[in-house]
């Protein structure tokens, strides 16, 4: 944890203050006194840590990734001397080794997967095999993942309940790749693959040889640094670092998070976050009315409040003071109303404000707690943290797995980056900068069986483990027995069915190994196991063996296009070897002009992987309308595949110009307008009555122009294709003066204390044409000019990238940091923050205290304490 560097005398009135400062800096502090936090690993070898996870084999080995390349192993709090593996990554800005996941069959196959930036233009998912704490057989599973070599590279990596490999990548920073409707890029997406790197053809945007990237599973995410899966539902929870809001999404296949158009205000058709908070502040909404009936209050706000279920809201200033205080959003009946449980007599009132919980600036890793080591009410909770706020939060879920309340759980975890549950049932936090690891344990008041996980999932034909210990000293020998209580007999305990605990070893986790045989069906197997011991309450867990023979139909494309009177082909095969002959049926619905042949395909264990071809034809018809149909590809016991067919009509159709919306331009700036023109054959376009210099491409119907003056200008577009009538459209374009840019500093925040060669100083300059550069000043001294972020929405950094602001060139004390952004017309804007620079170089004054620019150590310490010592990751 960063502390303010001041020099104190060891005696006198400040000794007590020093003791308080040192105590506050010792580590994380859980808000709940039933928990104890301690530093599990506090060495110096894990700086720039990006993630961690316990090997799922009961060995208690904790793997830690560093962005600079090394993967290290910690065993019982001690660092093993030899790295598991050392990559040679590209490490600029947020690039490097940024993700890690253990194979669900790790106990058997020993596979570990890593997401690595290998160059300024490529990331890869690389698999290693764990051979006695050494990674061997490096294999590139997914090459060609996008990066711009700077930030927003993502880093989430994990296996879903379907046994598929998922990963997340951001929009690649200022270049904004893959956003909105772009399905050609894996940037700003969640990807999904088979463990060997092949494409599952049930991915929602799979189109075979079409333009889509077939790996895409969900889209529309700015910087999804981490992901995890709910242990019961298997739903993917994605943590997204934002611009204005930090968001956690609970996702299904095909979901769209809305970036870069929406943050928390996603309209119908997009997925909204289940958890959110404002980046670096709070939202305040005006309350117009409050009405309480039966202990439930409905609050109405003057405008859209954008609150989500479980969000903590502070009500203040309501005329009837019984409505004031903290509540948690229960339901959101409309954009301007929300309900909350609130005890008190039925009443109505008006006025006041609703304020959200103040958040940090960089949402980081989250983990579901699935152990029995903590009380029942904490199990199933989602724990996540914020890199800048140095805090961890707990989201409580109800029986339907919906968020019911979000509260702070712990504070003082500087540069928090990730969380995980250990085999001992403790919750572990990881700090990015120093690689410090915290361990949070529950102070159990009574004896009990602590089971590491209540939900276990692994592929059939492999093995998995759970770990067991006792909550308290049993005072004598205790035998814990593990047995299948009910369920599929293919699942069994192969080791650890009887565990012996004593006073000496009760806190050390012991391992139970489960195995699953391969059966002949295509269904997952499920069994419940029970742990019992004399005098202790029994605990249970569920184990699921996912079917190893899950069959899939693979089609060459999910979309077919052809003209009437023509034919095209669809290719079909099986993805896995069948145990017997498989018949595949093809049917067509929709326009009767669309037919296919043959309608039945047969595959055997010898030819299942060879594509068979189906011919799809469209007959000529008498109308001039396009046709469409849907093909269904089915087989017994296999998920059906759908193929959409679009048929373009060949009959002549008069041209039609789709009217554009309001048109605006900027004087002396290029103006481009692609018109949407339809007709058969393809129309050609021409202009009349246009202002000087305006032209149109006859074939593409794209208008180009550089307006030379301010005003409103008109033009007429005419589209012809030999079929009457011609299409016409009248355009009116309002040309405005070039507006000055707007700018903001994202990091550091006002009042922050900085010190060292790797601090952050960056921000954004937005312009209606082009923000070409940003000048970074410390006081009146120009420190750096960045042009990397040039563009209509420029993202600029001191030093050209993250963590390159060197404060050691400036004296300790208060400084005004300024960022001046210039656009292509020479207009400027300025943003500034006042910070405290403390490089630890101040000299002690005659009282034994450090003095800086007229401010004594106590004043500087209090200033830093009040303003917050925070860090940010963008």
Report on this structure.
- The relative contact order is 0.08.
- Helices cover 3% and strands 49% of the residues.
- β57 and β58 (702-705) form a beta hairpin.
- By secondary structure, the protein is mostly beta strands.
- It is globular, with a radius of gyration of 31 Å.
- The strands form 16 sheets. Strands 61, 62, 63, 64, 65, 66 and 67 form a seven-stranded mixed sheet that branches. Strands 20-21-24-23-22-26 form a six-stranded antiparallel β-barrel. A five-stranded antiparallel sheet has the order 1-30-29-28-27, with no helix packed on it.
| Share of helical residues | under 10%
Average of the residue pLDDT scores:
88
What is the radius of gyration?
Answer: 31 Å
Note the beta-strand portion.
Answer: over 45%
In short:
The chain has 3 helices and 69 strands. The chain is an all-beta fold and 874 residues long.
Supply database-style keywords.
disordered C terminus; 874 residues; disordered N terminus; 69 strands; seven-stranded mixed beta sheet
Helix-strand layout with pairing:
Layout: H1 15-24, E1 29-30, E2 35-41, E3 49-54, E4 61-66, E5 70-75, E6 78-79, E7 85-86, E8 97-102, H2 106-109, E9 111-119, E10 122-130, E11 135-145, E12 157-159, E13 165-169, E14 189-193, E15 216-219, E16 223-229, E17 236-241, E18 245-251, E19 275-278, E20 284-293, E21 296-301, E22 312-316, E23 325-334, E24 337-341, E25 347-349, E26 353-356, E27 363-368, E28 382-386, E29 391-397, E30 403-411, E31 416-421, E32 427-431, E33 437-442, E34 449-451, E35 455-459, E36 463-470, E37 478-487, E38 491-495, E39 498-501, E40 510-516, E41 525-533, E42 536-546, E43 553-555, E44 559-563, E45 567-574, E46 582-590, E47 594-597, E48 600-603, E49 612-618, E50 627-635, E51 638-648, E52 653-658, E53 663-666, E54 671-674, E55 676-680, E56 684-688, E57 695-696, E58 702-705, E59 711-720, E60 727-736, E61 742-747, E62 753-754, E63 762-778, E64 781-786, E65 791-797, E66 813-823, E67 828-837, E68 851-852, E69 855-856, H3 857-867
Parallel strand pairs: 35-42, 44-51, 53-60, 62-67
Antiparallel strand pairs: 1-30, 2-33, 3-4, 4-5, 5-6, 5-7, 8-9, 9-10, 10-11, 12-13, 13-14, 14-15, 16-17, 17-18, 18-19, 20-21, 20-25, 20-26, 21-24, 22-23, 22-26, 23-24, 27-28, 28-29, 29-30, 31-32, 32-33, 34-36, 36-40, 37-39, 37-41, 38-40, 41-42, 43-45, 45-49, 46-48, 46-50, 47-49, 50-51, 52-55, ...
